[in-house]
Each structure stands twice: as C-alpha cells, then as structure tokens.
Specification:
alpha/beta, Glutaredoxin, five-stranded mixed β-sheet
Length: 113
C-alpha cells in the first residue's frame, strides 16, 4: 500500500495498489474526488483542488473510477466527478458533479477543527 505524496499540500493520486482507507485514516479531513481521465469537468476541477490542498490542512485525493471500480461502487460514485468528504476516517458528505471552489471550501470548513 504505497501511497506516494510528493510534498505537503499536494493532491494525492491513488495508484493500483493504494488503499483509500490508509489515506483518510491518516488525516483529519480528506476530500476525495472520483474521476475519469476523459471527464472534462474533472480536468477543470484539478487546478482548484490543487489550490484547496495548498492553502488548507485538508488532504485531497483523486481516484480514477475506471481503475478502482470496486472502491467507486463502495462509496456510491456512479458519475464523474463525485466528491466524498471524510472526517476522522468516515465518509460524511457526498457531492456529485462539478463544484465551485467556494462550495468545497465551505464544506471542508464545516468539518475542520
């Protein structure tokens, strides 16, 4: 289960051998985006997610639905993008479709210390 985080404040991209539970258990609040490579909305969300993770204490992870289908099904990610917010290792909120940076920041603030 080698989760590679390039540096603090980076978006985590889960690979084939990575485990979502190991990411969300290590952080207080984690925003997970379930995406697909061909999703235009997902591609437009990426710079915003990088900004959020750079200036908050929230971890942001990206999971490719096509590579992690069982995980996507487990968390109800039936469309891309789907965002799942974890607090203290537990899923607390799910959002489907493109989101604004403000709406994601407000959601994160609700569950942050």
């Amino acid at each position: 289960m080698a989760i590679k985080i390039a540096e603090t404040g980076s978006v985590i991209s889960l690979g084939d051998d990575d485990d979502i539970e190991s990411v969300v258990e290590d952080t207080g609040v984690t925003l997970v985006e379930f995406f697909t490579e061909w999703c235009g909305t997902c591609q437009r969300m990426k710079p915003m997610l990088e900004t959020i993770t750079a200036d908050t204490d929230t971890a942001v992870a990206m999971i490719d639905i096509e590579s992690h289908l069982e995980t996507a099904i487990e968390f109800g990610a039936q469309s891309a993008p789907t965002f799942v917010l974890f607090a203290d290792g537990q899923p607390v909120k799910q959002l489907r479709g493109g989101q604004t940076e403000q709406s994601l920041r407000e959601l994160i603030a609700t569950y942050s210390d």
